[in-house]
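Let us practice reading a record.
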Amino acid sequence: MFDKILIANRGEIALRVLRACKELGIPTVAVHSTADEDAMHVRLADESVCIGPPPAKDSYLNIPALLAACEITGADAVHPGYGFLAENARFAEILAEHNVQFIGPRPDHIRLMGDKIAAKHTARELGIPTVPGSDGGIGSDAEAVRLARDIGFPVILKAAAGGGGRGMKVVRAESELANALATCRSEAKASFGDDTVYLEKYLERPRHIEIQVLGDGKGRAIHLGERDCSLQRRHQKVWEESPSPALNAATRDQICETVARAMRDIKYLGVGTVEFLFEDGKFNFIEMNTRIQVEHPVTEMVTDIDLVVEQIRVAGGNDLSLAQGDVSFHGHAIECRINAENPVSFRASPGKIVHYHPPGGLGVRIDSAVYHNYVIPPFYDSLVGKLIVHGKTRVECLMRLKRALDEFVIDGIETTLPLFRALAQEAAIIDGDYHIHWLEEFLARGAVEQ
C-alpha cells in the first residue's frame, strides 16, 4: 500500500477520498488554491500545500506545482478524483516518471477511451454493442451526407475528443448537415484542440445507462451493476439511480457481464464506467469514463462496497478483494446533485452559506464539503453536495428522498433544491418513465418554482 497520498482535487470528492484514506490508515496531503484555503479537506488532511491562485489552470491543473507538492511532502501516490487531471494520460505518465503512483487506470487505457472514435472501435472488438455511425472522423461534407443517408436522419455529430455536451450537434435534415458540421468542428477545436468529428444515429427517447466496473489490472474484473443517469440538462446529469427502472434482470445481467468480460480482456486497472444509450431493448455504447464518477455513491449504497477504497487498493498492486459472486445488490438508491444555481435559470449563485442544515435519518447520506458560513467560490463548478438516499424498494426510496429534501436547508445562496422537490412529485418520475430529453422538456414547461 502507499505511504502517503496526495489528493489532487477539491470540494466534495477531495473530502470523499480523504475519508477513504483515513479508513485505510494512509496519511493524506491536501492541495489547494488560495481560494480554497478554508476548504474542509484542507482542514482535515494531515498536510496541506497551496499550489497557486484561484484559476484552475494555475492551481489544480498545474502539473509542476502538483509534482513539487509530492516532492515536498513525500507523497508516493496521487488520487486525482474526477474532473481536472483525472483522465489526463500525460499526467499519469509524468507521475510515473517521478516514481509517484497515479491512482487510476494505465495511461494507455485513459488515452484509448479518451478518444471517442478509438473507444468505439475497441468496444466493438470486445463484443460491446455500439450505436450505428461512422467508423472514424468525417473527412468531408460529401462523406457526412453519404453516411447520414445510409444511417437515416436524425443523426448526431460529436467531437472525437469531446465531453460534457461540447462539440455536439443534432441534425434532422440533410440541408442542415454542412453548417452543423462546420460549427461542430469549430467548437471541438476551441474546446479540445482537436476538430475531429464523427457521426452517429441520433436516438430520440433513449435512457442513459452506465455500468460500474472494477479491475485489478491482472485480468480480474467485476461489475457492480448499473446506474440510470437519464435525467440530464444540457448533457449534464442531475439525478442518478440504481437499479434502473427500465431494465429487467435478464437484460441487466447480460449487459453487465458483457462489460465485465471486456474489462478482463483488456486487463483494466481501477474503477471505470461504461456508458450506453438504451432504446427499444438495445444497448448502444457511447463512451467509457476512466475514473471515479460523481454518482459513485449510488452504487455504494446498493452494494455496500467502498469504491474509493477498492480503487486505492488495486492501484497499490493488490488483487481484487471480491469475486463477482461476492457482489450482492439490495434495495434502491437515488442521488440528487445539489448545485449553487438558480433552479429556474440555472445561473450560478456563488456566495456565503449563512444557514446549513443537512437531512439525516436512516438511509440518508450527504457527500458535501460545505459548512455553516462556508463561501462557495466563483471559480469552479457549482456543486454544493450530493444527497443520496437508500430504501428497500424504489417506492420507499422516493418517500425517503421527499422527506430528506424537505429537511434540507441551505440559505444565503440559491440552490437547485426546488428542482428536486418538484421532480420528486412528478408522476413520470414516480413511475420511472423518463428518458434523456425528459428533464429539458419538463423545464420548458416552467414547472419549477423558485
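A brief commentary: The first helix runs from residue 11 to 24.
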